[in-house]
Amino acid sequence: MERNDIINFKALEKELQAALTADEKYKRENAAKLRAVEQRVASYEEFRGIVLASHLKPLERKDKMGGKRTVPWNCHTIQGRTFQDVATEISPEKAPLQPETSADFYRDWRRHLPSGPERYQALLQLGGPRLGCLFQTDVGFGLLGELLVALADHVGPADRAAVLGILCSLASTGRFTLNLSLLSRAERESCKGLFQKLQAMGNPRSVKEGLSWEEQGLEEQSGGLQEEERLLQELLE
């Protein structure tokens, strides 16, 4: 048999493996597209995010347990070296929320922010302008109520301006009026409570003296507080 007739089995194996990988990727992404259609996602960004994240797998119970773990930070650089030489400790502390799309936000909001305080801090960290960009098209069904509840349950006097900025950005998103009409009764009550708290924070002296809401509205405001009151009135309208 001549040299040219020799079969390169290694090349065939690589080619077969590449074909299997491509086929698996196609099936995985196609299934993700079907799920996205069934869920009736609100925008193309959410649809695209679901497809791009189709390779991710849910964490197992052992992955969620606390404590530190040591893993190689780059598995491609450990040839000829021991695991201890390249292992690095990973802290269980959560990294800051850095979503690139509304789908990223929705995924992280559901998976990594289970508690109210965590959600509230994440909203403050992102801020109104960033949230406005993420949800320019639409906040998404059911999400607006959760955002309002997180703000209402944990808003503090020091965060008043930041929360007003977040509310203004959310109010400027697409289909906001529709999403507002879809709030549940509990979410509407939380929203009402949020605005009552924001009003009270605008005049600490009135709250201390036990004045009514109408009397608080007559109190004079100054400086940055006037701007906050203007934003609050716009949101109330």
TrEMBL record:
Signal sequence bounds: none
Subcellular location: Cell projection, Cilium, Flagellum; Cytoplasm
Domain RNA-polymerase II-associated protein 3-like C-terminal: 98-188
GO cellular component: motile cilium; outer dynein arm
GO biological process, one term: axonemal dynein complex assembly
Residue ranges of every copy of the Dynein attachment factor N-terminal domain listed in the record: 7-74
Superkingdom in the source lineage: Eukaryota
Name under which the protein is recorded: Coiled-coil domain containing 103
Role according to the record: Dynein-attachment factor required for cilia motility.
InterPro entries: CC103, Dynein_attach_N, RPAP3-like_C
Entry-linked PANTHER family: COILED-COIL DOMAIN-CONTAINING PROTEIN 103
Organism: Homo sapiens (Human)
Keywords associated with the record: Cell projection, Cilium, Cilium biogenesis/degradation, Cytoplasm, Flagellum
Assembly mode: Homodimer.
Family per record: Belongs to the DNAAF19/PR46b family.
